[in-house]
């Protein structure tokens, strides 16, 4: 397993659960100094950071790109894969495809979280799920062509009324016509929705491609009440080899949050 920490470069997301903010170079330098293997990036668009600059920073600091987020597509542009307007759905697919191509240049997957959207009033949930499947089929195939996976994230009930549990996420992935879409197991969302974090991980093991590392209150692991011992044991038993990435609030501040995260990662996974 490999460690990662989040860096957000989108001012509109300033209240979100990301450890480092605004300054890409400083965030990467701090991540490297603490011993993180990679950073997970949230940018406003696929061209917000020049690939050659990012490659140079990765080489300079010896860190990789774990994944790229797509949340700005919804926050800034209002795009989701389940919008009732077909043109909006098409633009959402295009935005994610661009982010996916950006990440693929670094061997990193793109993450679909908030851009999955909701079944809005007047739209049946089954219809919204059909649109979601349609988008994931298009994007999953493109991911495969680019040599990466696409990461789909079940969110808690307060953020989406579509897929909330890993079990339902597995059923969704089984309905796709490609195998390039994997699940993101976010421990914060799971704390709200799952009966047992460990058992849910165990049952979804073949489909998990990324893990978000946060405590019950979405602070860094160790600042809440989640029992990570059994979770860590299951991830080790299933030979999970992906990233354990800190998508958590920068509490009490980014530096202490990052230090707490790497300390917890070493405690449970090394």
Q: What is the CATH level 1 assignment?
A: Alpha Beta
Total of domains: 1
Query: CATH H level: which superfamily?
Result: Divalent-metal-dependent TIM barrel enzymes
What's the arrangement of strands in the largest beta sheet? Answer: 1-3-4-5-6-7-8-9
Helix content: 40-55%
Question: What structural class do helix, strand and pairing data support?
Answer: alpha/beta
Total number of beta strands = 9
Beta-strand share of residues: 15-25%
Structure, described:
- The protein has 270 residues and is of the alpha/beta class.
- The protein has one domain (2-269): TIM Barrel (Alpha-Beta Barrel), CATH 3.20.20.150.
- The chain is built from 10 helices and 9 strands.
- The chain has helices spanning 24-34, 51-61, 72-75, 86-104, 125-145, 166-174, 187-193, 197-204, 228-237, 254-269, and strands at residues 2-8, 20-21, 38-42, 64-69, 110-112, 150-152, 181-186, 208-212, 243-246.
- An 8-stranded parallel barrel has the order 1-3-4-5-6-7-8-9, surrounded by 6 helices.
- Helix 9 (228-237) links the parallel strand 8 and strand 9.
- Helix 4 runs parallel beside helix 5 (125-145) and helix 8 runs parallel beside helix 9 (228-237).
- The longest helix has 21 residues, at 125-145.
- The radius of gyration is 17 Å and the shape is globular.
- 50% of the residues are buried.
């Amino acid at each position: 397993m490999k460690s990662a920490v989040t860096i957000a470069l989108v001012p509109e997301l300033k209240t979100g659960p990301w450890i480092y903010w605004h300054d890409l170079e400083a965030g990467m330098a701090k991540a490297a100094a603490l011993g993180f293997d990679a950073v997970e990036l949230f940018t406003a668009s696929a061209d917000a950071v020049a690939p050659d600059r990012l490659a140079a920073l990765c080489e300079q600091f010896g860190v990789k790109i774990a994944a790229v987020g797509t949340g700005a597509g919804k926050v800034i542009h209002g795009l989701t894969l389940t919008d009732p307007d077909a043109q909006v759905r098409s633009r959402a697919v295009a935005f994610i495809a661009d982010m996916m191509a950006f990440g693929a240049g670094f061997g990193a997957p793109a993450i679909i979280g908030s851009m999955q959207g909701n079944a809005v009033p007047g739209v049946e949930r089954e219809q919204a799920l059909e649109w979601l499947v349609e988008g994931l089929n298009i994007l999953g195939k493109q991911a495969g062509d680019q040599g990466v996976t696409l990461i789909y994230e079940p969110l808690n009930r307060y953020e989406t009324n579509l897929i909330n549990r890993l079990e339902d996420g597995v059923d969704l992935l089984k309905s796709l016509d490609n195998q390039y879409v994997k699940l993101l197991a976010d421990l914060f969302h799971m704390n709200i929705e799952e009966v047992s974090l460990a058992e849910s991980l165990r049952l979804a093991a073949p489909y998990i491609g990324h893990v978000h590392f946060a405590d019950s209150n979405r602070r860094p692991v160790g600042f809440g009440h989640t029992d990570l011992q059994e979770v860590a044991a299951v991830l080790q038993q299933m030979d999970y080899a992906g990233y354990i990435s800190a998508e958590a609030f920068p509490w009490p501040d980014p530096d202490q949050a990052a230090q707490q995260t790497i300390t917890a990662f070493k405690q449970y996974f090394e």
